[in-house]
Amino acid sequence: MHQPTRESRSIIWDSLRWQDFVHRPGDIIVCTPPKCGTTWTQTIAIELVFPGGPAPGPVFEVAPWIDARFEPIGDILARLDAQTHRRQIKTHTEADAVPIFDDAQYIVVGRDGRDACMSFLNHMANLQPELMGQLITSAIEDGVPLGSGPPPVDNLHDFFTWFIDERILFDHISSWWEHHGEPNMLFVHFNDLKADLDGQMRRIAAFLDVPIDEAMWPTQVERCTFAGMKARPDDIAEFESQFIGGADTFLYKGTNGRWQGELTADELARYDAAVAEYLTPECATWLAGGGEPDSVG
Fold it and tell me: What domains can you pick out in the chain, each with its CATH number?
């Protein structure tokens, strides 16, 4: 087991919420930077654990974001403790700030940072304003450092600068990359999910040691397509309380390349410089294009 070596605390998440978590062998932990395919991967894992459904609740409820400060940690832990099925947990926290258990399984998901930034901008632009106010108030009460916070979301260029300066994606991916190759770690890329969802779901199923029923498989894959998820938002989450426009804005486009023609040459050069500074060449190659980590670079 790897013990945390530092704290990661912000308005939105707090690694200290892991302190009272009691793991079980076989726990599935989905580890991603924001907007890199988190909900997609969680939905796949739920579909594999509950083939054909129904799951015992929406994805966000059954597989909670443990470090998020949206609800009391006691409520999340009680919900997890009451589960008798194989459990799933989500985290956006860096690897060195959370416990890593040898008998849990970790799915690390990555995406080109420019695509992640564009999706994150849309995400923040549609967050319910009162929710952010509640998070700021509770952060002050809990002694969580407020930090700089994101800039106004009406300016892509300011937001992109903040995204790079805060190393939101780079710190997360570089910390988990240090564990790639370990037997309880699987690296999945957004591009590969888009290009070959069937193959990637089979890869995840093999990693989780979940059997596949070929008769049911096409339906399971269809339910995990982007269109399939958008068609059944109530199976994923109750979006309206947190996002303006509900599922239509949270499950937005699922596309790449929206930064092309929007970011300046200087901004793209700055992104490349940050990649070179914070990521190993092998990690950078994987993050840019996907593929299995041991076969890239």
Answer: 15-295 (3.40.50.300)
